[in-house]
Every structure is written in structure tokens, then in C-alpha cells.
Amino acid sequence: MKTLNEMKLTIESRSVNEGFARGAVALFSSQLDPTVEEITEIKTAVSEAVTNCIVHAYKQTIGLIYINAKIFDDNSIRIKIRDKGCGIDNIKRAMEPSFTTDPASERAGLGFAIMSAFTDNIKVYSSPGKGTSVLLCKKIKSKGQKICRQPETSKETS
């Protein structure tokens, strides 16, 4: 598989940057000509991963979130979202639906389940005290319809 294009983005773990990260990755992935549904799925998965960095990795501090997206010649995108926060003690447990590290929170603990539902593959690597990397892989299966306009014909005047 050959890499066709790559994007790297570093943002601070501020909640206002979640939308920016989601939009940047969606725009980058648009060169694969995904459907609206596929773009929505990518945006949602990225949103969940970045939100996990903001809410869990850095908790009450501001740190950096590193996003690397690559487009491959098999019409797929791989998005790596990494932090240098607190890390995850038990990845298997953290990926269980409804598990949360903060039971008092209003959050449902569905981030990894949502990421899994909207991508073809998710891998999570983490070291307590050193940070977490989430790799999201998605193959774009359908092509969006391109809007093409017919060129206007020039009218000759007499």
C-alpha cells in the first residue's frame, strides 16, 4: 500500500480545538471523494478521539494533541491521534461500552465504541504516565456524486 498524501496537525487540548481537528481531518479526507455519510463517520470518530485526549488524558491541564492522517492508494485513510497525557491502565476495560474513569461525569463512556462503529479498524496503544495513541482506519467504499456543470454555450449576436 502506497501513501498518497499526509497531514500532520498539533493542537492544544482545549475543547474549542475539537471542532477544528474534526473539520481539518474531514477536509483532508475529502480528496478520497467520500459520501456525506462517510465524512460524518470520520468526523465523529476523530471528535471522540480528540475529546478523550481533552477530557481524560490531560484532565485539568493543557497539553498537546498530535494528529497524523495518511491517505493510501487503496482508497483508505488512517488517522493517528496521540497525546502525552496520563495514559490508560487497562485498554481492554477502557474500550468496554459504558466504562468511564469518572462515574460522576455526564459522559456515557461510549467514545471507543463510537470510534469502532464508525471505522473499519481501531487500535489503541497506551503507557500509563506517558500517553495514548489511537489509530483509526477507514476504507472509503462509495464514491460521492460529483457535480459537473455543462459549459454554457456562447450565443452569437447579429
Structure characterization notes:
There is one protein chain. The chain is of the alpha+beta class. It has one domain (3-139): Histidine kinase-like ATPase, C-terminal domain (Heat Shock Protein 90, 2-Layer Sandwich), CATH 3.30.565. The chain has four helices and five strands, in the order E-H-H-E-E-H-H-E-E. The protein has helices at 16-29, 36-57, 91-94, 111-118; strands spanning 3-12, 64-72, 76-83, 121-127, 131-139. A five-stranded antiparallel beta sheet has the order 1-2-3-5-4, with helices on one face. A hairpin with a 3-residue loop joins strand 4 (121-127) and strand 5. Helix 1 (16-29) runs antiparallel to helix 2 (36-57). Residues 144-151 have low confidence and may be disordered.
Short characterization:
With 158 residues, the protein is α+β, with helices and mostly antiparallel strands. It has helices at residues 16-29, 36-57, 91-94, 111-118, and strands at 3-12, 64-72, 76-83, 121-127, 131-139.
